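Annex B, item 7. Sequence and structure tokens for protein A, then protein B.
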Amino acid sequence: MAQLLTGGCLCGGVRYEVAGPLAPIQLCHCGQCRKAQGGPFGANAPVATADVRWLKGEDLMREYRASAGKRRVFCATCGGPLFSQRDEAPELLRLRVGTLDGDGAGLEIGFHIQTASKAAWWPIENDRPAYPNAGP
């Protein structure tokens, strides 16, 4: 039986469950991810769209397109980011791992991407692979 993870937005208006375990976390240091997350990077885990079940709040979900072909989905009530998805890959979404319930025990960082544009004030202090531009 697959592990079942749960999560949601800050206000709790959007709730989901996802069949786990999740792939290793991808930390994206590009300027758009920093602005979208309000921090030094975006922490994402790729998930098959079919493995996500929205429990409530789909009517609260809105999207913003900062770049062509990619939608960033968030809660209309609290503004909490939920996931991003590329138009050419509707079968996959990049879940914002900070929306998971609990402390993330068992999750691990896989790699860093877009490190050429990372925030100067945030040092990368782990031994995970780092890619200056696109990922592996």
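Protein B:
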Amino acid sequence: MKTQLKSMQALPPFTLNERITHLKNLSKVIKQRQAEIISTISEDFSHRSEHESLLAEVMVCLDEINYTLKQIKQWVRAKTWHADWKFFPSKCSITPQPKGVVGIMAPWNYPFNLVVGPLIAAIAAGNRVMIKPSEITPKTASLTQTLMAEVFSADEVYVVLGGAEVANEFSGLPLDHILFTGSTQVGKIIMRNASENLTPLTLELGGKSPVLIGDDYNIDKAAKSIVAGKWFNAGQTCLAPDYILIDAARQDELIEHLKKHINKAFPKPDDNPDYSCVVNPRHHQRLTDLLDGIDEQQIYQLGKAGDSRKMAPTLVVNPPTSHPLMQNEIFGPILPIITTENLSESIDFINARDKPLTLYLFSNRRETIKTIKEQTQSGSLSINETLVHFAQKGLPFGGIGHSGMGSYHGYQGFVSMSHMKSVYYQSKINFNDMVRAPITQFKEKFIAMINR
């Protein structure tokens, strides 16, 4: 890998025309191999909903490419303005410049999207790219390597396969930028490794993204949206609702509406093509263990899990906050419901924990929305809907604190993958010598005049 990196760093960045050509070719290959991408991901998961993969792995990437192609000529232009009046008529500018070679470390939950999304940003910014896909989805990783070789030469985009040892070595390379998507725990390791080379990072992590249901909001509408967001990909989404906060008086009503919409969306989940599997037996066991120590009367499991890799949608009512279920990101089809007395208590509950990747608020009250925006911190805030904010063109995606640092998507992705170089253009006519030694009496008067 080190030899490959050196050869890539010795080559010039992509021209604008090369970037456009690469993105168009990438789009063409994704469209041609769409069915294969979807079926390969499903093989890695044992079963992955075809429609979920189409929406989240293919369509999102194609939309991002199309949006980037429409905007890229504007993005690459230097932004120029007149300098401060004291230096008139000099000029300043910010000129986007490729960083060099960007490393992309992708997770298993969306193993194609979370390679291609960052890749689009990196190519748009003119960088060459090294990619480390997840070993947990090996067939998709291998297909990714094949597809990239159809679009790029090895010194343009290079895909390296392997497990944790390869990932550890990869993150220690003297890359010019690393974008890592994964858990907070692994993100800390990546950051330590990258620090040896002072490699800048974009960390897209996770955390426990809360849902707060205001007392004014229609329970049925909230439940329908929560079910769609939570059990998409069987809850294996960094943006998935992790737990719900609601007032005690409406808890039972919420449970009934959640059950109704779960049964409507995913009847017989063990034999339902729209309901995805847990990615592997280890994660299935991890999720099963999360229910240990909770009273059976607090658990509502909708459907049978059988012996397959599927885990039925599960509601857990008021688990202890000290229980592992409430301490770590769930990343699966289990949804705790916590009761609070009022909005203030809900805010305190959220703020007592690590800053989440997303906060979901269901309320139509302007004052409630304003309060949540001002009194909580999260990577993003989604009001009255779940998940779909990820797919909004031009809306940055990223976390804060333990849920990540930096962001990408749209222009923000271009900026993250670029060095926004400051440039100063000195005019031929200037008065700079008037403030330089030796300071005469006349110069003192001039300095006093401009300091008013």
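Comment on protein B: The chain has two domains: 2-205+401-423, 210-393.
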